[in-house]
Amino acid sequence: MTLQEQSIADDKMRAEIAKLVAETSEINQNMKYRFWVLMAAYVSAMGILLKFF
């Protein structure tokens, strides 16, 4: 493998890593949002149940 081919391979690997980091960041943001929605649903359900008992 020539020096230029190695440089291109390194750039490709860096681009793949950057893509994975960006996707992971997006997933983490969605998980935080999902946590708060589920927590609100849980608290609402508990409030309704406690109101009947």
TrEMBL record:
Keywords: Membrane, Transmembrane, Transmembrane helix. The keyword Transmembrane helix applies. The keyword Transmembrane applies. The chain crosses the membrane at residues 33-52. This is Integrase.
